[in-house]
Amino acid sequence: MTTQSLSPRGAVLLGLLCIGVAAVPILSGLHLTPVKPTPGTPAWIALAVGLMFLFAGVTLLADAAAGGIGPNGELPQNAPPAFHLVQSILGLGIVIAMAAVFSWVGFGPGERHFSTTVSLPFGTWKPKGDTMGRWAFGAAAVLMWSAIAIAVIASMRRLIVRIRASLPM
C-alpha cells in the first residue's frame, strides 16, 4: 500500500476551500446572510460548524507554510515548533466544536429528526422517534469530551515536564 503526502500547494488549495465553506455557516450564525439555521437551532451551532471548517482550513495553510504533510500525516521534523503548536491548538478547536455540536444534538432541548434503517438477516428495522439518534450523538459527545480531557491532561503533563527540565537545578 502506498501513501501520499499532501503537497504544500495541495494544502493551500484544500485550506482555501475549507475557509470558503466555513463562510456560509459563520455568516449564517451571525445573521449576516438570508440563510438561517432551521427553526429551533441556535445560531451558535452554525458558528461551531463554520469554525470546524475555518480551523481545518487554517491548519492546512499552516501545514503548507511548514512544508507540507508527510505520508504519516505529520509535519516535517524540521518544521518550526510554532507550526506544531498551531496544528495542535486548531485540531483541539475542531474537536471541541464537534463535541459541542454533538452535545447539543444529543442532549439539547427540542425535537430532532433522524432517519435510520437497520438491515438484519430476517428483514429491516426502522426505529421511530429521535431516541436512537440522540443516544448515538450523546454517546459520541461523551466520548469526544473524554478524549479532549485526556488530551489536555496529557499535554499539560508534557508541558510541566518540559518546564521542570528547563529550570536550573
Major sheet attributes:
2 strands, antiparallel
Q: What assembly state would you assign to the polypeptide chains in this entry? A: single chain
C-alpha geometry: globular
Mean pLDDT across all amino acids:
87
Strand content: under 5%
* Count of strand segments: 2
> What would you report as the Rg, rounded to the nearest angstrom?
20 Å
Number of domains: 1
Q: Low-confidence runs (pLDDT<50, min 5 residues)?
A: none
**Structural classification:** mainly alpha
Cα end-to-end separation = 49 Å
Provide the succession of SSEs: HHHEEH
The count of helical stretches stands at: 4
What percentage of residues falls in helices of 4 or more residues? 55-70%
Strand order of the largest sheet: 1-2
Structure description:
With about 170 residues, the protein is mainly alpha-helical. The N and C termini lie far apart (about 50 Å). It is built from 4 helices and 2 strands; from the N terminus they run αααββα. It has helices at about 10-30, 45-65, 80-105, 130-165, and strands at about 120, 125. Helix 2 (about 45-65) packs antiparallel against helix 3 and helix 3 (about 80-105) runs antiparallel to helix 4 (about 130-165). It has one domain (about 10-110, about 130-165). A two-stranded antiparallel ribbon has the order 1-2.
Structure summarized in a few sentences:
By secondary structure, the chain is mainly alpha-helical. It has 4 helices and 2 strands, in the order H-H-H-E-E-H. It is globular and about 65 Å long.
